[in-house]
Amino acid sequence: MDRLRSLRTKLDDYLHKDNPVNDLLKKAEEKTKVDRVNLVLGAIVIFVVYLIFGYGTSFLASFVGFLYPAYRSIKALETEDKEDDKKWLTYWVVFAAVSVFEAFTDILFYWIPLYSLLKCCMFLFMMIPTEPNGSVLIYQRIIRPYFLKHEKKLDDAVKAASDLAGDFSQNGFIILFEVVAPVDVTSPGTRCLYPPDILA
């Protein structure tokens, strides 16, 4: 019980800090005559219930995983401190890995009860402002060891893809024009659609 009181006190202190969100909460508190802590807790309960029973909850969970970290990442880029850059870069590496993994397994996980709620909780765990947070733990225990073990193969695959992209950027216009708009430039009166440097 004391732990709950302590958490409530910390939340109350946080909700009285000077920022635009707390200014909105202050106005809502004045209009509704309901304490801002209770307003936030009520909003959390409604959000959780919606994640359990609502529609579009997978997108909503992903949106939660995107919104605050995107804001914090932009703020981090605007500071001289490199440590916060590293923290949020780690978050985005893990977020991308989770998103790619989910793209292949979503059809299975979708049927798990409370899947969207669990997904949202995982994203919150990944972004929680503690040291180390969830994204750092997932990176250090899963992604980094896998990367170090397969680094040479991954480097070779990235180089091959980069070379292929370079070849396509050099020859892509020729291929594109041959497929989309083949023109017999030798026919009299035919207007050539190719840029002059491609025909050279």
From TrEMBL:
Family the UniProt entry places it in: Belongs to the DP1 family.
Signal peptide residues on this chain, from the entry's feature table: none
Keywords annotated in UniProt: Membrane, Transmembrane, Transmembrane helix
Pfam families xref list: TB2_DP1_HVA22
Cellular component GO terms, alphabetical: membrane
InterPro entries xrefs: TB2_DP1_HVA22
Membrane-spanning residues: 39-68, 88-112
Compartments where found: Membrane
Membrane-protein topology: Multi-pass membrane protein
Species annotation: Opisthorchis viverrini
Name this protein carries in UniProt: Receptor expression-enhancing protein
Broad class of the protein's primary localization: membrane
